[in-house]
Amino acid sequence: MLDDSIFGISPRPDIMARVVRWQLAKRRLGNHSVKTRGEIKMTTAKMYKQKGTGKARHGSGSVSQFRGGGMAHGPVVHSHSFKLNKKIRKLGLKSALSDKAKLGKLIVLDGSKCDGKTSSLKKNLDSMGVGKVLVITGSDVDKNFIKAANNIKNLDVLSYEGINVYDIVKKENLIIIDNVIKFVEERLS
């Protein structure tokens, strides 16, 4: 039923770790910054005369050793993202799916029909013996299923277009709705 070229490969933890690191790096904002000496609004005049005061010689008050001065070599705004080849990303996703299948943590459901009650969905999940779970659905998912799943603590519902390694690795169990498998296999073939 499941394609062995996607769900049956030997998992590569190193590749999964690279993909997760890439995902988390892309997510970082990188908008932290401090003002340098040139950006401080302060006079550039010499603080006091060079000689005769008995104090140390100083120039501008915007240097880093004074209160209100600029920071030397502080953080600047930059992107933390980096490139990762499509083949590596695809292999990481295949490895994550294969790992769940190999550990017996992958469950394929026939459909997403639900009465819209959180308690009944929770009872069904408990009878399956799943705790932290990620549910991969299609575009034609039952609205009552989404409504019931919203209030369950460790349950995430994700469309097959947004399937990613980090969400799969983060959860203990993976539930895929039956009609979505063909889309996942099509994406990864």
Protein model, in words:
The protein is of the alpha/beta class and 189 residues long. The protein contains 7 helices and 4 strands, in the order αααβαβαβαβα. It has a 4-stranded parallel beta sheet with strand order 1-4-2-3. It starts with a helix and ends with a helix. The mean pLDDT is 90.
Outline the fold blueprint:
Blueprint: H1 4-7, H2 13-27, H3 86-103, E1 106-109, H4 118-128, E2 133-137, H5 143-149, E3 155-159, H6 165-170, E4 173-177, H7 181-188
Parallel strand pairs: 1-4, 2-3, 2-4
Helix pairs in contact: 2-3, 4-5
Structural class: alpha/beta
Radius of gyration: 27 Å
Distance between the termini: 15 Å
Shape: elongated
Uncertain segments are none
Mean pLDDT: 90
Q: What is the H/E order?
A: HHHEHEHEHEH
Main beta sheet: strand number and arrangement?
4 strands, parallel
Helix count equals 7
Strand order of the largest sheet: 1-4-2-3
Question: Which terms would index this structure?
Answer:
four-stranded parallel beta sheet, 189 residues, 7 helices, 4 strands, alpha/beta
Q: How would you summarize what this structure contains?
A:
By secondary structure, this protein is α/β, with parallel strands linked by helices.
